[in-house]
Write a structure and sequence with these properties.
The complex is a heterodimer of chains A (345) and B (176). Chain A is mainly alpha-helical and 345 residues long. Helices cover 68% and strands 0% of the residues of chain A. Chain A is built from 14 helices and no strands. Chain A is globular, with a radius of gyration of 21 Å. Chain A starts with a helix and ends with a helix. Helix content of chain B is 76%, strand content 0%. The mean pLDDT of chain B is 81. The chains are: A mainly alpha (345), B mainly alpha (176).
Chain lengths: 345, 176
């Protein structure tokens, strides 16, 4: 009996429960792995140090210690803060991340929502996080926070456009917005008659892939695009007034969003869960698929954090110019070329 | 047979949809009232988010996923964010805003009632007692086929209008 048949026999609430648990695990476990692998270890080796070594083997339990520390801290509200808006902001940001992960498939039956809107739904819900950042910046009643929130909004609006336009090229080539169908289109594709590795769209949509990665870096507000949280001038911007659990939520949100965006990028450009030589619809892919996705996520986020710890910060005007004068025109040209090639071939 | 089963046996009645429609509609009305009665501009914009999210939810109940997602992307993700961005950039006072005055409320109420009357008459006039049958969920392909064949002229006209607005904004904003 195939996995799909087993799954179909479960009641609706059982399926929903499984998907909910898997979604929580997919966001939180991946975020934890990224913090440990990249923030604690990779950057430490780049800086010729060991990083955390005390808690657990090779410091692997350091993250749990950090979470325990944050949960014990007092949840401070500034006296003049707008209590509700201030308190709700981190939840809005985190909710947007959890809603984004539902569109990512990790196997033929290992999906959360198999909507034909797919990536369009994902981009729509990811745009809601801006609202949470504005709420945090304004609700804190702190001019540094407000400036950070405004900078973040200006940046996220500017880089959302190249992000969406880069995706359009992939959607045109695949002929569908459904994430699973995009994976199948890549697995069954051919380049110049060669179909050994399928056609991962990084090969034909390389320009879109680079634009997507740059825009992703900016959407995550990682250096060189960390103007909104610039610690040396804005004391971490919209997060300044947050402490304890609410700061932890922002912190989790940052790394979880990095993982989820990397997952979206690996589905769109790196062939998703597909392994050359194995039928992407085979049952075994429900087990292997999540592992393949995890490898791709860790690889792509390594690029994100490598850049983050290497590049100096952009100035605000450089940042806006890069988006509006370079990325958007290139992405539009990419769409036109993709459209013409799609019609001719 | 329970009452619920008896109701849903009637193919024209969609019990779950109707219940959720009522829940969402009531919360939308409450939020819409708060948009115009709250004393703070930022709070008004945030209440507007709830109203617009309710609209998206109603579209999903009608089986129009594409329109619902577009509603979220355009209205919540862009329009309200730009509202908030503009308000916070210019005057972001916490607490009640004195410039939100009472003197214009009467006029606004008149306009609101008139608009409601026009829309209510138009809706009642065109649907009368007809019962709406919820069709199968609308596919993206059907929407795009309709836009780019049947409604191509309207689509192009709207595009040109938006382009004109965009150029107009640049002309107004330019200093030289």
């Amino acid at each position: 009996m195939s996995t799909a048949q087993v799954f179909a026999e479960l009641a609706y609430w059982q399926q929903t429960g499984i998907r909910l648990g898997a979604g929580l695990a997919a966001v939180l476990a991946v975020a934890g792995a990224l913090v440990y692998l990249h923030l604690f270890k990779a950057v430490s080796f780049m800086q010729s140090r060991l990083g955390p070594m005390e808690a657990g083997p090779y410091g692997s339990l350091q993250l749990l210690a950090e979470i325990g520390k944050h949960l014990q801290k007092e949840d401070i509200f500034p006296r003049k803060a707008d209590k509700f808006v201030f308190g709700a902001a981190p939840f809005v940001v985190l909710a947007s991340t959890f809603l984004l992960v539902v569109v990512v498939p990790a196997g033929p039956d290992a999906w959360f929502v198999n909507s034909e809107l797919g990536i369009y739904l994902g981009l729509a819900v990811s745009s809601v996080s801006v609202l949470g950042i504005l709420m945090a910046g304004w609700g804190s009643s702190n001019k540094y926070s407000l400036l950070g929130g405004l900078r973040a909004t200006g940046q996220l609006i500017a880089y959302e456009l190249p992000l969406i336009l880069a995706v359009v090229g992939v959607v045109i080539q695949a002929g569908t917005m459904n994430m699973a169908d995009i994976v199948y289109a890549q697995a069954n594709g051919e380049i110049f008659g060669l179909g050994v590795v399928g056609n991962p769209y990084i090969l034909t949509q390389g320009v879109a892939f680079i634009i997507f990665l740059i825009a992703m870096q900016a959407e995550l507000a990682q250096a060189p695009f960390d103007m909104p949280v610039a610690e040396s001038e804005l004391v971490t911007g919209y997060m300044t007034e947050y402490s304890g659990m609410r700061f932890l939520l922002f912190f989790i949100g940052e790394f979880a969003t990095a993982g989820v965006f990397a997952a979206v990028a690996s589905v769109l450009f790196l062939g998703g869960w597909y392994i050359p030589g194995i039928d992407p619809g085979a049952d075994i892919m429900n087990l292997l698929g999540p592992l393949v996705m995890l490898v791709k996520i860790v690889g792509l986020t390594f690029l994100v954090f490598w850049t983050r710890f290497t590049m100096p910060r952009f100035r605000e005007d450089q940042l806006q110019r890069l988006a509006w004068k370079f990325l958007i025109p290139i992405a539009l040209a990419n769409i036109v070329v993709t459209g013409i090639l799609k019609v001719t071939f | 047979m329970s009452l619920l089963a008896a109701l849903s046996a009637d193919a024209d009645l969609y019990v779950a949809q109707n219940v959720f429609f009522a829940v969402i509609a009531v919360s939308m009305i409450y939020s819409a009232v708060r948009v115009v009665t709250t004393g703070n501009v930022v709070h008004a914009a945030l209440w507007l988010v709830v109203v617009l999210a309710g609209v998206a939810a109603q579209f999903i109940l009608l089986g129009s996923e594409f329109v619902a997602v577009t509603q979220v992307l355009v209205y919540i993700g862009a329009v309200v964010v730009l509202f908030l961005f503009g308000v916070m950039l210019t005057r972001a006072s916490l607490g009640d805003d004195e410039s939100v005055g009472d003197e214009k409320r009467g006029m606004a109420a008149v306009v609101g009632v008139l608009l409601f009357a026009v829309m209510a008459i138009a809706l009642i006039d065109s649907f009368e007692d007809g019962r709406l049958v919820i069709e199968t969920p609308q596919s993206v392909n059907a929407v795009s086929d309709a836009i780019f064949s049947q409604y191509i002229v309207a689509f192009e006209a709207v595009s040109v209008l938006l382009l004109a607005a965009l150029i107009g904004a640049i002309v107004v904003a330019r200093k030289d």
